Structures are given as structure tokens and as C-alpha cells.
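A note from the maintainers: we've had questions about how concatenated examples are separated. There is no special marker in the raw files; a new sequence line simply starts the next protein. For clarity in this README we add a label.
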Amino acid sequence: MALSCPMPGGDAISLSVFMPAIDPRYRRIKSYIEKNLDDSELDAASIQAVFGLSRATLYRLFDEVGGITRYIRDSRLTAAYNHLQQHPSCNLTWLLYELGFASERQFQRSFRARFGVSPAQWRERCRHREDGYECVLDFA
């Protein structure tokens, strides 16, 4: 989308602005990411190749959400959080590889940083929801 900004003296400059909420490429890329979370090779370069985008364009599209790498990581973490909430007996090693994490350590660190508890602690909390505990984390 191009915007024209009036400048003092009557001149105008044209700005090229990417607005993720309305750019159809953003929605298509988000959908692609969701469908390919299990691919540990899913990264900015692979998305650039699939969609024929320059690095700058891809990064601009996802700048408002913290960048493409962060978006992919957060999507994987949210999927893990939700899966463990619904299936607390799930094997963590299976889950981390199913969601495309390259290592257990990466998964553990990222999950704890994002949610404040380890995946094992979250899974245990969800296992006890039948005992009257809520299986919900408070995000501040």
C-alpha cells in the first residue's frame, strides 16, 4: 500500500507501507506457518523461497508481531501449550519434535520464558485439573 505524505511547501513524498492486518500475503504466510509447524526447517529463508519474497519484505510484514522468527516460535509454543492442556498425558519428547523444535533444551527454555513454567510443570498442572485445579496460566 502506498501512502502520500504532504510536506511543508506543498510537496508530497510517497511511502510504501505494509500493513499485516490487510496484506493478503500476511494471512497466506500465517496459514502456511500453522500448517507447517512440524517442519523443523521452517524459517524465514524457507518462507521466502515458498512465497518468492525478499528478506526485507518478509521481515516488514511481520515486524508488528516481533518478527517472523518470533512469530514461528510463538506459534509453536502456543500449540504446545494448547496440546498439553487438552492432552496432559502427552509425551513431551514426542510433542517437541512434532511441533518442529530442534532440541529439547530449546523447547524447555522457550516454553519457560514464554509461560513462566516448564512444559513438565504445565503438563502436571493440567493433569490435576480433575482434582479441582484450573489448567490456566495468568499471562501478565
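[label: protein 2]
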Amino acid sequence: MNEQLKLYNINPSYVDQLHNLDYRVEKHHGKHSKPYLGIILKINNIHYFVPLSSPKPKHKHMYESLTFVKITNRSQLLSVLNINNMIPVPIGFYHKIDINKISDLKYRDLLNAEQIACRKRHDGNCQIFCVNRSFS
């Protein structure tokens, strides 16, 4: 895909449905809606998104791979992408996050830094962020 990566929110009811089918689909448990990076892949009318997850202490010691990417800014770990947790989302079940409209300044700055770092890491050919995952 040649489009620039953006941050999205996914319909929470849709995420709940996916979670009921596959426990690895992350449900959100925080103050803000969970951001997803996308659109990673387009297959027919289904778009694929990767959840942006808060860093945990264990992530500092983990090595990056095709399915695990650290999102950093000046060596500060901002978030991680567990690409094997990518989810398919039909058109109409997601919307782009308008970062400029977020009133929580600390959260706005974090999302902006994450989006910029993700774009810097992405090579346009999806070689860094894309792997196949099937839901049956």
C-alpha cells in the first residue's frame, strides 16, 4: 500500500465480537479508546489494523521480529506493535483518529509521536509491519 499510515479507532462492539471468537484479540480497558495502526492490508472490502499497545517492562528486553515492533522516539519506548494480533475490519467499523481534537494534551502528544514514529519505520512495501493472519 502506498497510503500513509494513520491511527484509527475500531468500533468497540466489533472488537468484542472478534474477542469472543479469538481471545488474542485485545479488548480495551483504559481511559481512552484503543488506537490501531492502519490500514496495513486491504483484501477485498476488508481492511487490516494492528493494535498499538502500551509498553510493558518485558518489552525492553524483547527483540524485534516480523511480528513484534517497538515504536520509539529518541530511544524512548512509546508503544509496541504485536503484528500477529492484526485484525480484519470491514468498511464502516473504523474511523481515523483526529489527533488535533484530543483535549488530553499528554495523550495527544503521545499519539502524535507514535504516528510519526510508525511512519518513519514503515517502508511502504509492508515488509516491516505485515504478516498474514487468518481467522477461521
